Amino acid sequence: MTKKINFSKFSSIKIGGELDVFMIGSIQECQKFKEAYLIGSCNNILISNNPPPLAKLSKKFDYIKIKENQLIIGAATPSGKVASFCKKNNIANLEFMSHLPGTLGGLVYMNAGLKEYEIFNNLLSITTCNGVMLRDDIDYGYRYTDINNPILEATFSITTGWDDAKVLMFKKMRSNQPSTPSAGSCFKNPKGDYAGRLIEAVGLKGKRVGDMEFSQVHANFLVNHGNGTYDDAKSLIDEAKRLVSEKFEIELECEIKILES
Predict the structure, then answer these.
(1) Catalytic-residue membership of 245
(2) Residue 84 designated active-site
(3) 59, 79, 98 - which closes a domain
(4) CATH code of the domain containing 29
């Protein structure tokens, strides 16, 4: 089954056309469409003018349950729902999910987090189209994993003690981020430095092409002021990479996933 999705409305950066997306409702269907790129809620994705085949998990993968003192979460479950469940059940260490947009599969795939608080800190295993993978069998690091199969489910260890103080801390961490539509942080922070500082240092903070701009609020956010296009966004990304490389000999790596065939 396919579903038409208008990515200019659905994606957080508000770029993309209306595309047919395969809807996966079972492991069998997952195998059928495993060559397609699996999207979640499109909070860190930039859709090109020529994207690959796309797939999305159905609501059948939106669930949370506790079994044998482990937290089991379907990959289509929104982060806010996870945070609410953990607060209600006094589960600690996932407080940052309250201020991290997306669905669980995408968050696990990129080892999302805030500062040192990351998904993998409490992850035990994942279930993919090809079966179960233990955390120790996955190569992962800062905003990176080597997972190359669609994630269907993730299992976490449980520690009691939800901490509202951490929720406030995470809210403060994100207080300097723009509210204008974006795909989150554009580039990963290089080791020992900050992508936003580098972009500002090469004069690109506030640089605008069409309706796309490196935000004046935070330079590492590529924001859409209304009618931004993929070409506008890509030109700014390429310019930032070039200028930072020339001035600092640092190769910026995108945190945004650019989907192109």
Answers:
(1) no
(2) no
(3) 59
(4) 3.30.43.10
Tokens of 40: 């979640």
Told to judge if 185 belongs to the known catalytic residues of this protein, a careful annotator would answer: yes
Q: What is the pLDDT of residues 3-39, one digit of tens each?
A: 999 999 999 999 999 999 999 998 888 877 767 899 9
111-164 per-position pLDDT tens digit: 998 888 999 999 999 999 889 999 999 999 988 999 988 999 999 999 999 999
Residue 126 phi, psi dihedral angles, 5° rounding: -130, 155
* Catalytic residue, candidates 143, 208, 235, 245: 143
Two structure tokens written together for 22: 């395969």
Which position among 41, 182, 185, 215 bears the catalytic label? 185
**Residue from 136, 79, 112, 155 nearest 257 by CA:** 112
- Compute the distance between CA of residue 259 and CA of residue 249 in angstroms, rounded to an integer: 26
Q: How far apart are CA 163 and CA 170, in angstroms?
A: 11
